[in-house]
Design brief:
With 302 residues, the protein is an alpha/beta fold. It contains 10 helices and 8 strands. The chain has an 8-stranded parallel β-sheet. The longest helix is centred in the first third of the chain and has 23 residues. The chain starts with a helix and ends in a 9-residue tail after the last helix. 36% of the residues are buried.
């Protein structure tokens, strides 16, 4: 081959490589994964045990979470699950899934003791999520209700401290479900290992004052469980919606991001008519879309 031919071939080869590179660079670049509290590894799957239409056992549940890339589970159980408490802990550990929280009774009854015994056997460090209604229905004063709630929580708090666990006061409607009342209980209880778990799906009545009370509860939050939100959802039969299907959750999530909150974020199944995997995937997809569309929060001032 002549020198001119070799030079022409070299130029042609360089042009082809450059062209291929240009075509490859024109392909869409996948979005960067969310960071901070909304990162996939920080998300906690919640209400996926009794609400799962497939009624998975521990092994099937762990495999489902593996497939979704979720590494945290808050364990919502029913009486029929008590015999599988040990299997649940062992299976999640084997799959590298943190058992982040455990639904817990508001009194140290037999079920509570079964949970504490399992936690102690396996040296599990977790959060005990506790809810109650009105702690003293016949007591008219706020001070009396706070004192009754504290009296119920103190034995639980003591057991949690003994096992190096935390307690999360869980809003589930009623007097105890009001953030202002929970703050009063926390202040009276005065235990550093006791905090709050805030649930969107039990907070539809809080929508118009969320921005006011969120700064008051932020320092105490262990987890915020997300949900699609619309005003009047309870009356409309739309209490549980996938994230992104409501018209109010974007503003709430934007406020949480802007606040610098760095705790855990929960996503729900809570739809007994659906396979839990489907319900969780709907929420994951909706959260990713919503975060992509929200403006980036301004940097926090020192």
């Amino acid at each position: 081959m002549s020198l001119l031919c070799r030079f022409s071939a070299s130029i042609l080869g360089s042009y082809l490589l450059l062209s291929i590179g240009l075509v490859q660079s024109a392909e869409p670049v996948p979005p960067e994964p969310a960071v901070g509290p909304f990162a996939r590894q920080n998300l906690v799957a919640w209400c996926i045990v009794p609400f799962d239409a497939k009624q998975r056992g521990p092994e099937e549940r762990a495999a489902m979470l593996d497939g979704l890339g979720l590494r945290r589970l808050a364990y919502d159980w029913r009486a029929e699950h008590i015999p599988t408490f040990d299997a649940e802990i062992e299976t999640m550990r084997r799959h590298g899934i943190e058992l982040t929280a455990w639904w817990f009774p508001a009194a140290l009854n037999d079920e509570a003791r079964a949970i504490l015994d399992a936690i102690e056997r396996h040296k599990l460090k977790t959060q005990l999520w506790v809810s109650m209604g009105d702690p003293a229905p016949s007591e008219p004063s706020q001070e009396g209700k706070v004192a009754a709630a504290v009296a119920a929580l103190e034995p639980i708090s003591k057991e949690a401290r003994r096992l190096d666990c935390k307690v999360g006061l869980y809003n589930h409607g009623g007097w105890f479900g009001q953030p202002e009342n929970q703050i009063a209980v926390l202040q009276s209880l005065a235990q550093p290992h006791v905090g709050l778990v805030y649930n969107f799906h039990h907070g539809h009545e809080h929508l118009d004052r969320f921005a006011k009370f969120f700064p008051q509860i932020q320092a105490h939050l262990l987890c915020v469980n997300l949900n699609g939100m619309i005003a009047g959802a309870d009356e409309a039969g739309k209490k549980i919606l996938p994230i992104g299907d409501g018209d109010r959750e974007a503003a709430l999530i934007s406020l949480i991001r802007a606040s610098g909150y760095s705790g855990l974020i929960g996503i729900l199944d809570h739809r007994p008519e659906l396979d839990a995997e489907v319900a969780l995937q709907l929420n994951l997809n909706g959260l990713e879309r919503l975060l992509r569309d929200l403006p980036e929060p301004a940097p926090k001032k020192p």
